[in-house]
Design brief:
mainly alpha; 2 domains; about 0% strand
Length: about 160
């Protein structure tokens, strides 16, 4: 089951990359209107999720608890909309690879902190040294992706 979950997470990562590219091209087709492209992305996602939720049943009962929830539990859609807008707006400006390594770095650093301290009601998962090492390797990869060509050019001049 864990391997299936890992594979699904990997596929979600692919979907994020494809979504950023598709949405940024939609924005180009919409005369550069990144807000409209992000809106359309969320609208179609909402319709599909709504249909699936209706088919699964219990949607009305589940939604009935929303008014009693604290505000911080209700900002997921706003955060998602902001993230989608940023990918639509940034992909053509900084490139898809640069965008996504920075997104991954932000996700990695924030998730390690959230896990370690059990923030936002999550289960506490203390950060082991090996996980910090792994995160450092990923961040080194981010730095190489962003600045590797400049480093190679500087080293070439020095030789």
């Amino acid at each position: 089951m864990v391997l299936i979950s890992f594979a699904l997470a990997f596929i979600a990562g692919i979907a994020i990359a494809v979504q950023a590219a598709v949405n940024s091209q939609l924005a180009v087709a919409m005369s550069g209107n990144t807000m409209a492209a992000a809106f359309y992305s969320f609208l179609t996602g909402m319709v599909v999720l709504g249909m699936i939720a209706l088919l699964r049943g219990g949607l009305t009962e589940s939604l009935s608890v929303v008014p009693s929830q604290p505000g911080w539990k209700l900002v997921g859609g706003i955060l998602g909309a902001g993230a989608i807008f940023c990918t639509v707006w940034l992909a053509p400006r900084i490139g898809l690879a640069n965008l996504l390594v920075l997104v991954i770095a932000g996700q990695l650093l924030s998730s390690v902190v959230i896990d370690h301290f059990g923030l936002l009601g999550t289960i506490v998962r203390p950060v082991a040294a090996i996980k910090l090492f792994g995160a450092s390797v990923v961040l080194l990869g981010v730095a190489l992706t962003l600045f590797g060509e400049r480093v190679v050019a500087l080293l070439s001049r020095a030789i």
